[in-house]
Amino acid sequence: AAAAAAAAAALVAAAAARRKAHAAPKKPPPVGFGPRDDARSFFWGTLGFGGLAYVAGAAPWALHLVFLAFFFLALPLRAVSFWRARWQFFLLDYCYAAACAAALFLIFLPDDPRAEAVAYALTEGPLAAALAAWQCRYQFGSLEHTVSTHLHLLPGLAVVAHRYAAPSGVRGWRAIGAHLAATGKEAWAAAAAAAG
I want to staple 67 with a disulfide (CB 3.0 to 4.6 A). Which of 33, 140, 146, 154 is the partner? Predict the structure, then answer.
């Protein structure tokens, strides 16, 4: 009797295993709505893309400030993650050198035409071509793809915006800060005159 019960239990377990094996597989959740980390990455990637598009359209003169913020926030984090993964030799790549050259130009030599020519040639030539050659894509749920795309895209946008989209007579990040302070004071003075 015990052997018959064990055989029956084995048959029931085998039937259950067959039903489970033939059941329809579950569909994976859409990108960005899976685990928490994926959703968080998707949210920040979408917010970053929207913010970049807004700045490019509404205040293109501020694109080099966006690049400098990216340079000082994302690139050190990338360096740490590459060092931990023992990929530090990837940090010797051309794109990091061109981004460093663009940042040095924008911070220390914003009025030097020779430094501007070098930064322009480095960022608008091979670095911009690498976007197409290496098929960099803006994948909202992947922090690695987002940082890589920004690393190839932002230096060129920053140098072009510095050259062509700066307010008249305003060159460099210090001058833009002074320009914003002056226009802010003018706006407050106009608002006070209109109210009073």
Answer: 154
For residue 75 the two structure tokens come to 């690139």
Look up tokens 């340079």; give the residue: 71
Task: Tell me what pLDDT residue 32 has.
Answer: 45
User: Residues 98, 122: contact at Cβ < 8 Å?
Assistant: yes
Q: Are 159 and 61 in contact (CB under 8 A)?
A: no
DSSP state of 1: -
CA distance 196 to 193: 5
Q: How far is CA 23 from CA 16, 26, 63, 159, 167, in A?
A: 11, 9, 52, 56, 64
Q: Which residues contact 137 (CB under 8 A, 6 or more apart)?
A: 145, 149
For residue 32, give the DSSP letter. T
Write out pLDDT tens, residues 3-35: 778 888 888 887 777 777 666 556 555 544 455
- Rounded Cα gap, residues 184 and 190, in angstroms: 10
What's the whole-model pTM score?
0.70
Find out whether 116 and 163 touch, Cβ atoms under 8 Å: yes
pLDDT band at 67 (very low <50, low <70, confident <90, very high): very high
CA gap 42, 47 in Å, rounded = 8
